[in-house]
Structure to design on (166 residues):
């Protein structure tokens, strides 16, 4: 695992300094990236602004410093306090980036549904082009069953992914 500097030294806008005890952030032989984003001394009254837009800005800055890899883990103080979406929005963004390259996990789901719909339409065309003997053997019904299984898996993926970086 690689990580940025914790505490006040790691919270400078536009900079993602490497933690001295960690390998370099862009060391791709380490598969996990941890972004620390908390003050040296926790200050609950200012945490709302800390865990908001500046947190997402830091995640984007550290993405570049880590060799264009998104954080797998984020460490913050008072994760429930924020102005807006806060740490939950940040994790939602990370899950979207890690799963499908989208801005949030919900966009991934829309993308998956669109891709599935296009695949289904192509399958419908193939079904019409198959000979009667294939229908008789039940291969199309087996394919339809597999598509239903894929749809079920896609409907369950949201809760699995959210847990990934929390």
């Amino acid at each position: 695992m690689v990580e940025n500097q914790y505490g006040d030294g790691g919270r400078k806008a536009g900079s993602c300094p490497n933690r001295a005890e960690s390998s370099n952030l862009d060391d791709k032989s380490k598969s996990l990236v941890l972004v620390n984003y908390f003050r040296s001394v926790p200050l609950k009254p200012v945490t709302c602004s800390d865990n908001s837009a500046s947190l997402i800005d830091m995640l984007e800055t550290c993405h570049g410093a880590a060799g264009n890899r998104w954080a797998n883990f984020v460490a913050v103080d008072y994760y429930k306090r924020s102005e807006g979406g806060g740490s939950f929005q940040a994790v939602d963004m990370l899950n979207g980036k890690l799963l499908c390259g989208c801005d949030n996990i919900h966009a991934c789901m829309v993308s998956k549904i669109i891709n599935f719909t296009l695949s289904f339409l192509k399958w419908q065309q193939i079904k019409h082009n198959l000979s009667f003997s294939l229908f008789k053997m039940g291969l199309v019904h087996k394919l339809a069953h597999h598509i239903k299984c894929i749809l079920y898996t896609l409907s369950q993926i949201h809760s699995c992914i959210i847990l990934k970086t929390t």
